[in-house]
Design a protein that fits this description.
CATH class of the largest domain: Alpha Beta
Helix content: 25-40%
Shape: elongated
CATH topology of the largest domain: Rossmann fold
Bound molecules: adenosine-5'-diphosphate
CATH architecture of the largest domain: 3-Layer(aba) Sandwich
Number of domains: 2
Largest sheet: 6 strands, mixed
């Protein structure tokens, strides 16, 4: 097996009393997209800043390697291997898009001819050729974001950190950005993406990790994550109140009743065997539902289940949080702890 493009063990960071990253692990294969998902303030940018050498890891962190280089002993080589696009753009608005790219080429010590070649190629690739000679301050949000990423590509990095690359973009620009990211991965680049958008992680990521209260509370492919949350159900609807009551009686305690809609909801992981067992029970009782729908949880369900904490959970002691004996054991927050192994 080849070495992961990014590997971190027990990554920690605290600001004063506040623990932001509480010992998290990453192992990201080369040529894949990894999405770090978390609500505002979860610590996503902090993780990106550490992995991209902008700030040092916290005390007690284990080994970190990026692009095959050890972060502690060879930060310079890490910097040479990566590109970072943060929420705060590196684009200089006073000069043109083309000049921004040529400047980056200079910083990377490319020859004049090579710098011009790379600049022209990137302008073309990012659909900026027409706007190349205009000051970057006149660009739309989407164009600035594209220029920003083009600038990080001048040095031909093999690992790219994209910190919330589509926050604030309109849907068209967002889709354009997704296309661009897929193109990068097609070229073998490893992408470490942070996002608050579940749809984005679902669209792009090979693996997704959910960061919450300083820990990775779940990790897996979008499909794997969707399977670990409750919320999947089968809904049966009836037009005949007598059939509805019969079905409720036969299906028993599992069924959640919606008397107004004459509908029953049964927990289900969406597998064929569960569906068959529900239908068999209805058949045996001679009951016919008018409508049957299967609801599979989406990433929204996952995200809310994993990051939803009540005030009790927030005030739990560390011991309780570690052992999972707090009130969260009853809440969704307990789900990932029980299931984490199964999605690895
Ligand atoms: P995210 O990117 O997930 O929104 P951040 O990594 O930016 O989260 O921030 C995580 C937490 O760390 C926040 O509570 C933030 O206020 C805090 N934080 C970030 N940088 C600093 C800093 N330089 N000093 C003190 N606290 C900070």
């Amino acid at each position: 097996m080849t070495n992961p493009a990014i590997a971190a063990n027990g990554l920690r960071k605290a600001y004063g009393e506040k623990t932001v990253l509480d010992g998290i692990d990453f192992s990201i294969p080369a040529g894949t997209v990894f999405a770090l998902l978390g609500p505002n303030g979860a610590g996503k940018t902090t993780a990106v800043k550490i992995l991209s050498t902008l700030i040092p890891p916290g005390e007690g962190s284990g080994a970190i390697s990026v692009g095959g280089h050890d972060l502690a002993t060879d930060a310079q080589a890490v910097r040479a291997a990566i590109g970072v696009t943060g929420q705060f753009s590196a684009v200089d608005g006073l000069i043109t898009g083309e000049e921004n790219l040529l400047l980056m080429a200079d910083l990377h010590h490319l020859s004049k001819a090579e710098g011009r070649r790379v600049t022209a190629e990137l302008l073309e690739r990012f659909d900026l050729t027409e706007a190349a000679k205009k000051p970057a301050s006149t660009y739309s949000g989407g164009m600035k974001r594209r220029l920003d990423i083009a600038m990080t590509l001048v040095g031909n990095p093999r690992v790219i950190f994209l910190d919330e690359p589509t926050t604030g973009l309109d849907p068209r620009s967002r889709h354009g950005m997704w296309q661009m990211i897929r193109g990068l991965v097609g070229d073998g680049v490893t992408v470490f993406l942070t996002t608050q958008y579940l749809e984005e992680a679902d669209e792009l990521a090979d693996r997704i990790a959910v960061l919450h209260n300083g820990k990775l509370v779940a990790e897996g492919s979008a499909e794997e994550l969707k399977r670990i949350v409750p919320g999947g159900h089968v809904r049966l609807r009836f037009s005949d109140p007598a059939a509805y009551r019969d079905a409720a009686a036969h299906l028993g305690g599992d069924a959640v009743r919606d008397d107004a809609a004459l509908a029953l909801q049964l927990p289900s992981d969406g597998t064929q065997s569960i569906l068959r067992s529900i239908l068999d029970r209805l058949d045996a009782a001679g009951i016919e539902a008018d409508e049957l729908t299967v609801h599979t949880p989406d990433l929204d369900d996952v995200f809310f289940a994993l990051t939803e904490t009540d005030t009790d959970t927030d005030t739990k002691t560390d011991t309780e949080a570690e052992s999972g004996t707090g009130t969260a054991a009853r809440t969704h927050a307990a789900v990932p702890a029980q299931n984490k192994e199964s999605v690895r």
